Amino acid sequence: MDSQQNGVKTVLVVDDQEMLTLLMCKTLGRAGFRVLWANNGPDALTLYRGAEPPVDLLVTDYRMPGMTGLELAGACCSLNEELRVLYISGSSPGDELRADLDKDRRGFLAKPFRQSELLHSAKALLSMEPMVSPSRQENHGFGLRRLSPGR
Hints:
The protein is an alpha/beta fold. The protein is about 35% helix and about 15% strand. The protein contains five helices and five strands. Mean pLDDT is about 80; it is low at about 130-150.
């Protein structure tokens, strides 16, 4: 039985900082996700194209040498418009990224972040619930929104 049939979601993690990539992979893997990873955009795109079952969520650093996370997400989303994308970055999003964050199925998580924040963001994007960081309830205007009190 493949991972799509048994409910396991596939996540592709991409960051040029290998230690952070491995930590995110370990966190997501322990939570039950099937995890693929790469340290740059071109390798990630190759993995994405060959992934079986297909990738459900792309977690990518926004600023990487060579191919940015935004360029990678654009290439992957051109192959599958339903792909969810979680951008991570140590800096505030610029206008280009903000425009992409206005689209459905996008989120942003500022570095440094807690493992619980990564998991919450991934699960929220995959379930299409409004994204709220468990410890940062304020509205950042970058895909993070406060849940209504009854949720």
